[in-house]
Design brief:
Length: about 325
């Protein structure tokens, strides 16, 4: 019988009900955590939160915590902490990428300007830091290290690979820092705070690293395949901003090695002015039909398989099975 857990079908009904109930409390806690007496911040801090989202990171905290006592002290704060940190990073990312929309609505910087968007992100990071302090010193350390990785990932994406550095290794390291680090934190905090069996925190941290990379590789596919109505993002927005993705890296490598006309034409368009929507749309169509897209999909699936293999170190049972389903759902999603 299908579960009621949003986006994660066919898991144990009792576990699904447990997590859905707690996600409701976490949603309430998220809104309480950004409450402010400042009139401006009251609107800007809730902007992306009100736009929705999959709440992947809080869900992972709760799934990991279900290996122990999901109601243990600090678990709910940890779930709110990771989502606040994620939301904060989105405000900053949209400024960096000049993204006009996010989650189907105008991005914060489009509405209020770059300065307000950046300061709102900083405000959310501050509220997340207060939660880590409430959980305890170890959570503060883990959160600060993750925050550092988020910053480094954005920096390395911005400046690109160093001379002589493998662009594929560089790209995977960016994904690890920008996306996977927060999923690793979610898994580790959830298991550790819940008193899960010894070693579970480490397993969930390593799992988070793998599933985070798989998640972002799947996002590279979605960035080209989906439309703005379903994804909330303009297809190919990363192309316009010159942000590398796995499909474009694969095309660049093939163009360098084979010099085939199709790859060279895509490369020419990639390096041209894509400010015009028509030019961007034509490039997106070319990439949709290119073998690099399917190659990226296969890489995402292989990385997800590696994440599931790590889960094999956990005790067999409904939680492990749910985490395996969670992994597949993240990689096979259509939005």
């Amino acid at each position: 019988m299908p579960s009621t857990l949003p986006g994660v079908p066919d898991i144990d009904d009792q576990l699904a009900t447990s997590i859905v109930e707690r996600l409701g409390a976490i949603e309430h806690g998220l809104r309480e955590s950004v409450a402010s007496s400042d009139d401006m911040m009251r609107w800007t801090a809730r902007h992306l939160m009100d736009a929705g989202g999959k709440r992947v990171r809080p869900m992972l905290v709760l799934l990991a915590a279900s290996l122990g006592d999901v109601d243990a002290e600090g678990v709910q704060d940890a779930a709110i902490l990771v989502e606040l940190t994620h939301l904060a990073s989105l405000y900053h990312d949209d400024v960096m990428d000049s993204a006009p929309t996010r989650r189907g609505t105008d991005s914060a910087h489009s509405l209020w300007g770059n300065n307000v968007a950046i300061l709102t992100g900083d405000f959310l990071f501050a509220r997340a830091s207060a939660l880590s302090a409430r959980i305890g010193p170890e959570a503060v350390r883990m959160h600060s290290e993750t925050f550092e990785r988020l910053c480094l990932g954005q920096l390395h994406e911005t400046v690109g690979p160093a001379e002589g550095e493998d662009p594929f290794a560089h790209y995977i390291s960016v994904l690890s820092d920008k996306t996977a680090s927060l999923l690793a934190l979610a898994g580790d905090l959830g298991a550790s705070l819940a008193g899960a069996p010894e070693g579970s925190g480490d397993v969930m941290s390593r799992y988070g690293e793998k599933v985070g990379v798989a998640f972002q590789l799947a996002d590279d596919v979605l960035d080209l395949e989906s439309d703005a109505a379903t994804s909330g993002k303009t297809p190919g927005i990363d192309l316009r901003e010159g942000v590398p993705t796995m499909p474009t890296l694969l095309v660049r490598r093939r163009a360098a090695e084979q010099q085939d006309p199709r790859s060279l034409e895509i490369l020419r368009r990639l390096d041209s002015d894509l400010s015009d929507d028509t030019a961007l749309g034509e490039l997106v169509e070319l990439l949709r039909e290119d073998e690099a897209l399917e190659e990226t999909r296969r890489l995402a699936q292989r990385t997800a398989d590696e994440a599931v293999e790590i889960l094999g170190e956990l005790p067999q049972g409904p939680v492990r099975e749910a985490l395996e389903t969670f992994t597949r759902t993240l990689v096979e999603r259509r939005r």
